[in-house]
Amino acid sequence: MRHLLNPLDFSVEEIDDLLALARDIEQNLPGYAHVCDGKKLATLFYEPSTRTRLSFEAAMLNLGGNVLGFSSANSSSAAKGESVADTIRMISCYADICAMRHPKEGAAFVAAQKAQIPVINAGDGGHQHPTQTLTDLMTIRSMKGRLDNLTVGFCGDLKFGRTVHSLINAMVRYPNVKFILISPPELRIPDNIRDDVLIANNVPFEEVGNLDDALGQLDILYMTRVQKERFFNEEDYIRLKDCYILDKKKMKLAKEDMYVLHPLPRVNEISVEVDDDPRAAYFKQAQYGVYVRMALIMRLLEVQKPC
């Protein structure tokens, strides 16, 4: 039995195989309608979510399975004080696989230690978000045709952005990838990512404060929102929330084949006028999330591809 708690739980070869399966699902979706007949996915979401939770549910339903679970801690026995360890023991009696989102870093790891079913980390605090990373990798490869020889810019909340941390962890394994980290000083990438991932792997990177100066160098721009829920001081959030706004004027500074990704939801960091730009890939990115999660469910349940 395998779990997915961290992007590095899968080798590069396994990720390539998973993305190939996701691509086949995209092209032959009806053919996968019964591969998980009789299987159940539990969605344990202690934090609010739209795309991740619903894409997991859509993925399992597309495969012919069923879904059960909860969408907030207040609607579960966590409100009565039940531990994650006890919850997952109970859920293991009801479902074949589960996806968990939790505000506390390491919660999915705790669940995996006690589970009798595969556990998928759907986001744990500011730590990791491996299924979003798989979605991002599929989007980048679909847009650019490769995952190597790229300059990738991350812009916005790099301190608390678990999608940023996960994607950097995954992409340092591909050759000739450079990162440009665009943020205000208060939201810079954490030391454990800078020192233990980028510097330790001799990956070239720059830390800058100006988006305009970086745009012309990028093959991919990964925008993020400033996350209000991660701030203890609302004044700091208000001061920082609109520090970067991507609009049509800024897009003119970028290459014709630079694509914009965003894990969503957005607030003000991408103007709606950018949505019509052919380089805006974030809604396609959300669609790819369903195919990737379908492929992942199949792999963790050891379900075979239909003939």
From TrEMBL:
Top-level lineage group: Bacteria
Catalytic activity from the UniProt record: carbamoyl phosphate + L-aspartate = N-carbamoyl-L-aspartate + phosphate + H(+)
Alphabetical UniProt keywords: Pyrimidine biosynthesis, Transferase
Residue positions binding carbamoyl phosphate: R51, T52, R101, H129, Q132, L264, P265
Ranges for domain Aspartate/ornithine carbamoyltransferase Asp/Orn-binding: 149-298
First-tier enzyme category under EC: transferase
GO terms for MF: amino acid binding; aspartate carbamoyltransferase activity
Family, as annotated: Belongs to the aspartate/ornithine carbamoyltransferase superfamily. ATCase family.
Full protein name: Aspartate carbamoyltransferase
Species, as recorded: Enterocloster bolteae 90A9
Record lineage: Bacteria, Bacillati, Bacillota, Clostridia, Lachnospirales
Name of the encoding gene: pyrB
